[in-house]
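Hi R.,

Here's the chain you asked about this morning:
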Amino acid sequence: MSAYVIVDIEITDPQQYEEYKKLTPATLAAYGGKFIVRGGATETLEGEWPHGRIVVLEFSDVERAKQWWGSPEYADAKAIRHRTAKTKMIVVEGFHP
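And here is the predicted structure, written out as tokens:
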């Protein structure tokens, strides 16, 4: 069952964050992940949702998403993100009829 990593990012150092954006795509590809949403325009339709940059990633399943997140391939990019942004990140299983 597909899994989605949903990320809400408040970028605190935009210049350094650009390096994270360059490094991340190759790490995703190594684990079969892909971008579904990558920082596009947002609009709150209901409730209060103070948000920053929204990213949605798709993987074949939750286990694969977690492997990517904890991978050595992603470690350098993750360290940059930790230094340059405040992040909320979840993984959620996709719908299976």
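One quick note: DSSP finds three helices and four strands in the chain.

Cheers,
M.
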